[in-house]
């Protein structure tokens, strides 16, 4: 931390303050936002009204068809019989999920995950009722008919299977569902038989699928951050997604293998087993948190179903948790581009950080989980193991600081006659000494830089680890949510409506560590630049604002990590004698060949050459000014 670094931090802080001030909406903008919200509310009410009207119209049509079958036959032809009937409920259930179907539309109407609860201990329902739509557009001769309006006939009903049949003249459209034991996968087959005379087009049937995702976690803001509409390309391993930070829409012309509606910890996925979705229009819209919903997803897909050909088209639904090992297991018997890659639904960071999570963090976590049931203890042991893995880098960084601290008296002697404002000369003398003794001031930076992927990987892992969900530790009743000890009742900008205790402990420990670290690595800069200590204390406070809404498991990890770092630094400091270290540096420097040039010597030569060129340019400019 030198003067330029402190100036940089100060400017960053000022930029943040200025951005906060200037980005605050004006009264006109607030009024415009209110008008926009009012218009959105009006559109929502209109859509609700239209839906209600459609239901009333369908009910009226149903009554008309029952009262006058001949008139219905004239309007709907061979489909008339399917527009009336009794809506029956069929339930498929195993030890993990319960799927409820309605014979009208023959689609899943409600899915309950039996092993999970919402944050307020209610049954965890992925969707139900009007929050979900799964409708095939059937292009009949001269009319577009929707499968959601038709009454199918259920048959072959067991706890794990059901077959919904739609009779059209001499043909039939059959939806078969099968729920295997101990599985979150629901097989869905569509079979067409003898339907060619009743449909005007051989084009792929359009599927309209949409779902309104309800709030299941304590923090709707944080839950929305990890919710997204994701999709995987066919014969490819790439997975893409729409933005979760605002309304987004995407028309995808490439073939898709699957489409997923996901929130922070759970997903609904529609997978095409053989034929891809040849085209898709995808959209997501953020919902008002006060409504109890976080996102609304829509997917309009070319399903691959040709109603004019007798064949079976195979799909699979996944209704379940975003658990890394579970999602990976679905690729055990698949190879290459045929793999589902559902594990990419879990946002574990960019490529390098994702590899670190997949190869280091998750295997260690799973190993500890296999014989320890307390997740607070698991996080503690995980922290210790990570610290142990990073110790070589930590030690190298510490020794680099210790060498510079040991050389401080020598540097003070060399620079005592150089004016403080002559920073170039002071820097040159310091670099000469470092080069002569073989001490690299950058030696502490590179080891820590190498450890950054692990630190960032852990940051992405904890908010997505469903294993922590619902598990308590100490005062935190859910390690996947914030551990509030005080609710304000009002929302404070940049902070939220509560204070999290682990976040508070992390902040306090970070301040203590900052003071401790400055004392341990003091080279005199603290006295020369008193502003430095204030900046070092300001950063932890800024982190408190950032992490207050994060999972308590993450802030607990950082709290423990800082405590271990303080203890490690204290122990290493107690074993290092600055005078003895200086003696060893001098002995090593005496044995060092005079003509041997290390990296610091080459760096110094480059600096001196740059300074020489700058001085020469300044001299030439001064001469030109004199001549003028």
SSE blueprint and pairings:
Blueprint: H1 3-23, H2 27-67, H3 69-76, E1 89-93, E2 97-102, E3 107-117, E4 123-128, E5 132-140, E6 143-146, E7 153-155, E8 161-168, E9 171-178, E10 185-193, E11 206-214, H4 220-225, E12 228-233, E13 239-241, E14 248-252, E15 256-262, E16 266-272, E17 280-286, E18 293-302, E19 311-321, H5 324-329, H6 351-369, H7 375-406, H8 408-415, H9 423-437, H10 445-461, E20 484-492, E21 496-500, H11 501-520, H12 525-528, H13 531-547, H14 552-574, H15 578-591, H16 599-627
Antiparallel strand pairs: 1-2, 2-3, 3-4, 5-6, 5-11, 7-8, 8-9, 9-10, 10-19, 11-18, 12-13, 12-15, 14-17, 15-16, 16-19, 17-18, 20-21
Helix pairs in contact: 2-3, 6-7, 6-10, 7-10, 7-14, 7-15, 8-9, 9-16, 11-13, 11-14
Offer a concise description of the structure.
The protein is built from 16 helices and 21 strands.
Tell me the number of structural domains. 4
CATH topology of the largest domain: Beta-galactosidase, Chain A, domain 5
Highest-level CATH class of the largest domain: Mainly Beta
The poorly predicted ranges are 523-529
Number of strands: 21
- Overall pLDDT score: 79
Using only CA atoms, what is the Rg?
33 Å
User: What is the spatial order of strands in the main beta sheet?
Assistant: 7-8-9-10-19-16-15-12-13
Taking the sheet with the most strands, its summary is: 9 strands, antiparallel
Rough shape? Answer: elongated
Helix/sheet category = alpha+beta
Helical content class: 40-55%
- % residues in beta strands: 15-25%
Question: How large is the count of helical segments?
Answer: 16
Distance between the termini: 43 Å
What would you say the CATH architecture of the largest domain is?
Distorted Sandwich
């Amino acid at each position: 931390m030198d003067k330029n670094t402190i100036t940089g931090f100060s400017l960053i802080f000022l930029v943040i303050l200025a951005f906060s001030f200037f980005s605050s909406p004006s009264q006109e903008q607030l009024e415009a936002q209110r008008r926009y919200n009012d218009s959105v509310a009006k559109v929502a009410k209109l859509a609700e009204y239209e839906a209600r009207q459609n239901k009333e119209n369908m009910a009226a049509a149903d009554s008309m068809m029952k009262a006058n079958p001949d008139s219905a036959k004239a309007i709907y032809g061979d489909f008339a019989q399917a527009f009336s009937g009794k809506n029956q409920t069929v339930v498929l259930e195993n030890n993990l999920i319960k799927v409820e179907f309605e014979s009208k539309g023959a689609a899943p109407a409600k899915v309950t995950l039996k092993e999970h609860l919402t944050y307020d201990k209610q049954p965890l329902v992925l969707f139900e009722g009007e929050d979900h739509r799964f409708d095939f557009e059937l292009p009949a001769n001269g009319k577009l008919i929707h499968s959601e309006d038709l009454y199918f006939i259920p048959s072959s009903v067991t706890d794990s299977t059901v077959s919904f049949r739609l009779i059209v003249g001499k043909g039939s459209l059959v939806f078969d569902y099968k729920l295997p034991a101990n599985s979150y996968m629901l097989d869905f087959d569509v079979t067409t038989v003898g339907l060619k005379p009743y449909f005007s087009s051989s084009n792929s049937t359009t599927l309209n699928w949409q779902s309104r995702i309800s709030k299941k976690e304590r923090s709707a803001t944080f839950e929305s951050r990890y919710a997204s509409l994701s999709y995987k390309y066919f014969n490819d391993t790439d997975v893409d997604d729409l933005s979760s930070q605002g309304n987004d829409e995407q028309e995808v012309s490439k073939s898709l293998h699957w489409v997923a509606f996901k929130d922070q910890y759970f997903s609904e996925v529609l997978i095409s087993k053989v034929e891809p979705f040849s085209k898709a229009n995808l959209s997501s819209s953020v919902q008002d948190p006060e409504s109890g919903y976080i996102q609304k997803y829509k997917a309009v897909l070319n399903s691959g179903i040709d109603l004019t050909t007798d064949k079976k088209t195979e799909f699979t639904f996944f209704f379940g948790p975003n658990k890394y090992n579970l999602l990976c297991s679905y690729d055990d018997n698949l190879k290459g581009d045929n793999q589902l890659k559902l594990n990419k639904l879990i946002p574990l960071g960019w490529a390098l950080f994702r590899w670190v999570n997949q190869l280091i963090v998750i295997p260690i976590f799973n190993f500890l989980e296999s014989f320890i049931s307390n997740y607070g203890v698991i996080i503690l042991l995980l922290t210790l193991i990570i610290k142990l893995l990073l110790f070589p880098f930590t030690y190298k960084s510490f020794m680099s600081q210790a060498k510079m601290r040991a050389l401080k008296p020598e540097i003070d002697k060399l620079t005592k006659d150089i004016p403080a404002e002559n920073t170039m000369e002071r820097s040159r003398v310091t670099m000469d000494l470092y080069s002569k003794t073989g001490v690299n001031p950058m030696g502490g930076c590179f080891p820590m830089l190498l450890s950054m992927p692990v630190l960032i990987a852990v940051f992405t892992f904890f908010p997505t680890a469903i294993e922590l969900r619902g598990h308590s530790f100490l005062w935190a009743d859910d390690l996947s949510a914030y551990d509030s000890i005080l609710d304000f009742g009002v929302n404070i900008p940049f902070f939220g409506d509560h204070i999290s205790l682990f976040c508070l402990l992390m902040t306090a420990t970070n301040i203590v560590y900052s003071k401790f670290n400055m004392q341990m690595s003091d080279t005199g800069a603290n006295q020369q630049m008193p502003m430095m200590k204030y900046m070092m204390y300001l950063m932890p406070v800024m982190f408190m604002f950032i992490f207050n809404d994060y999972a308590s498991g993450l802030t607990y990890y950082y709290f423990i990590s800082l405590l271990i770092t303080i203890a490690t630094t204290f122990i290493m400091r107690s074993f290092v004698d600055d005078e003895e270290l200086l003696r060893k540096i001098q002995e090593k420097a005496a044995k060092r060949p005079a003509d041997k040039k290390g990296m610091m010597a080459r760096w110094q030569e480059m600096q001196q050459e740059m300074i020489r060129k700058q001085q020469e340019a300044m001299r030439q400019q001064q001469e030109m000014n004199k001549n003028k």
